[in-house]
Amino acid sequence: MADEQTVREYRTEELAEAAGIPVRTLRFYRERKLLPPPRREGRIAWYDDHHLARLRTIAALLDRGHTLGGIAELTAAFENGRDVGQLSELLGMGWSEETPVRLTPEALADYFEGEVTPENLAASLDLGYLATDGDEIVHVSRRLLDVSSALVREGVPLAAVLETGRTVRAHADAMAALFADLISAHVADPEAVGRLRPLAKSVVEAELSMALDRLLAARSRPEGQPSS
């Protein structure tokens, strides 16, 4: 029979230390209802890894410029059952074609067996891939979740996938700015960037495909043989 999964619990001081915040900040978050209530055992408050994940989400959102009021709105929206499809809007990401996915911690562990470490969770939160909703986790993109999981199954460490994702994000931001500048400079319609978005995606997909063709062809040539 498989052993039951051990749930780690923290006293107030231990949780604050694990999250890298002062105890008074933790208590302030509780007063603002940014954290779900702890389990009580007499006068002792016991927190678990879900509370720690929520604190890391708060830290990541604060680093991205969100206010505590905005984070409280996000938390309240989820706890009141708002559709997860509104996650991007609440996080200030605007309209998106990506489909967010709700996951239990166990389901996330199944996607990335043996790779769901505190370090990888913190990196995912920092990138904005993950947010927490009570006992559930929300991934902002079904496509990125599936691709990341597939790469891990192929043997690529999740930490390397996330670090590469950070680099891809920087290049993608630069390409988006390049496309927006091109359209804004030559098309008078203020809605043109959004309207012509599919063209930008097609260009990026085609160029990446041809770049991979060139790379694979170069690697398959015998050493010293020039390209045709």
Automatic annotation (TrEMBL):
One of its GO terms (molecular function) is DNA binding. This is MerR family transcriptional regulator. SUPFAM superfamilies: Putative DNA-binding domain (SSF46955). It comes from the Bacteria. Residues 9-77 form the HTH merR-type domain. Keywords: DNA-binding. SMART domains: HTH_MERR. InterPro entries: DNA-bd_dom_put_sf, MerR-type_HTH_dom, MerR_fam.
